Amino acid sequence: MNKNLKSYSLISISLIFFIFLDLISFSQTADQIKPSLFLLSFIYWNIALPEKMNLFFAFIFGFLMDFIQGTVLGLYPLILVFISYLSQRFFYQFRPLKFIQQALVIFFIFIVIRFMIAVDLNDSNPNSLTLADKEYVLISIAFAVLNALIWSPSHYVHRIYRRKWIKI
């Protein structure tokens, strides 16, 4: 098998695996704050192998997430292109950071992602903006904190997987 095809296949398998893990449902509150392992995985692959991750991954997996989550078509591709841009543009600055600093960056990325998802395009009444809800903001902060805390173990697991299976 071609080396590039094998790398793309293994990256895709890991992303699909984390999509399935994200589909596991808990209580309503837990579902709102549980970490998004798929997005953490997507960030990792963009930082670890920026030459292998391209817009094809962002669009294909973005549309797949749109269909699974039931969001407005094109929202997740926009989010994944945003993540790809930030990850690939600043990966030289991000890689040498300590894990606590990386977690802080992940926290801010996930706050922005939650606020992007909060924009309700179906109900465009300016008086009913979801971001004005104090509970939503607190849940968004909890979501971002959990993703920041999960970043270090997720990074470690991905690194082991990459070193064992994906040869550059």
TrEMBL record:
GO terms for biological process: regulation of cell shape. It holds the Pfam family MreD. GO terms for cellular component: plasma membrane. The chain crosses the membrane at residues 53-86, 98-117, 137-157. InterPro entries: Cell_shape_determining_MreD (IPR007227), MreD_proteobac (IPR026034). It is a multi-pass membrane protein. Keywords: Cell membrane, Cell shape, Membrane, Transmembrane, Transmembrane helix. It is found in: Cell membrane. NCBIfam families: shape_MreD. This is Rod shape-determining protein MreD.
